[in-house]
Specification:
Elements lengths: L1 H14 L2 H22 L12
Helix pairs in contact: 1-2
Amino acid sequence: MIILGVILILIGILAKIGILYTIGAILAVVGVIFWILGATGNAIGGRNHWY
């Protein structure tokens, strides 16, 4: 999710499409939150690991 967010941010910047930049930023932030929660050992949505 983090990689997809970064790709969308780059495409949004290069193509000057604001919605892609916004969606990419949201995906990157959510991905980082899931990564941090998973690293601390908390189950997310009933799952111990997100792949």
